Amino acid sequence: MADGDGETKKPGLFGRMFGRKAEPDREPSGSQLEAAPVAGSSSSQQSEPEGSRSGEAPAEKPSWWKRLKTGLARSSSSIGQGITDVFTKRKLDSSSLEDLEDILVRADLGVAASTRIVQAVGKGRYDKEVAPDEVRAILASEVEKSLAAVAKPLVIDAAQKPFVVLVVGVNGSGKTTTIAKLTQRLRAEGKSVVLAAGDTFRAAAIEQLRVWGDRLGAPVISGAQGADAAGLAFDALTQARESGADVMLMDTAGRLQNRAELMAELEKIVRVMKKVDAGAPHAVILVLDATVGQNALSQVEIFGRVAGVTGLVMTKLDGTARGGILVAIADKFGLPIHFIGVGESADDLEPFEARDFARAIAGFDEETVA
Fold first, then answer.
1. At 183, which CATH number?
2. How far apart are CA 236 and CA 175, in angstroms?
3. What digits encode the pLDDT tens for the residues 177-226?
């Protein structure tokens, strides 16, 4: 079976695997997260809370846990139903373990994690009845182990001023909105932030970042549409240094990982930044769309090779997500996962917590697993 990066996977624990084939490289469709709030347009206006026009109190927003669980519903439902079907009133044998492996691989957890989980379930339980909840608890424990090592915050080194964060990813992954959310977080911590509008291909992207900058109190350095992005990076970093900014966040144009000329431009941006500051960029964040599944593996590999990705943000855990892929990415690349996002507002981007993610993908309620 070919993974998203083209690597042929070996057979699973029992030599049988019916995983989903990798999607062909393609540009993901746009989304609400990338809708540019252009000044003067209706999209620049925040939608009114439910009930505000009628005088009613706005509906209470669900907790982060509930939003995360909803976002992983597609993966957790598939896994949970499969486990129930396999293990209800049935003794554990090689056939049931093979079925479990198939379920996990289909949910994009990857061969390595699926094998570990199957081995953990089978240990000491062969030829015994195993309750579905026991299997899900083992699943949650093993997923948490896989993710705990990569659940790391984005650390801003105050000795590097400005601390330069380059944000990369394919079209529609949510880069610009992620930058806005990070800006809000950093500003709340008392840091001064400069934004660089490096997506020079789209006038709407430049204007979108300007609007966010105005809202969040962060200066935006931009050029004309079609300007050289590497030149913009040079100018922005030079100005950010002169102004004494704590952090510079640079947006980039969305680019497919199989477009050599666009990836070459990204290499140039990194190379030009180093002419201003040999250590820049100090962090390179790859924003991943949680709905693309196996294709995310090739994105991590190629963007990592070209731009030196140092950490990940996963967006769009909105109920259609194939969240299991985050486990496969953690196993294969070991890159820090800084944040995950489940919606459009600022508090929909939260630091990544391995235990919460593991419990949600296993389908547990918040209070179920100690």
1. 3.40.50.300
2. 18
3. 999 999 999 999 999 999 999 998 888 889 999 999 999 999 999 998 88
